[in-house]
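Hi Y.,

Following your request, here is the sequence exactly as I used it, all 101 residues.
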Amino acid sequence: MEIRKLSDAMILAVEAAVREAKDYVQTVVGALVDNALEALDTLTELSKALGDNPNFAADVAVELGKRVTKEALVEKLANYVPKNGDTTVNGILTATDFKIP
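Below is the corresponding structure, written out as tokens. Let me know if you'd prefer a different format.
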């Protein structure tokens, strides 16, 4: 009979350990799911902010490729600034400095 009681005690201990393990797993999975939902909300918000455009990165790269370089701008503006004499005020170009070629 004493062996039977020991067996029952062992079963109760195993059952308690299983309950603890289940509770722990549920807690960890619950925290993981809660955090995932927040991350998914953030991704949804970002997607909406980017216009739900799946090609956003490629589109931005194309537009960046179209940008005007500093050198090209200086070269183009050189056509509008007179070559003779300094007509700036304190080193700043004035409206009369520009001419249309």
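Residues 87 and 97 are 6 Å apart (CA to CA).

Thanks again,
Q.
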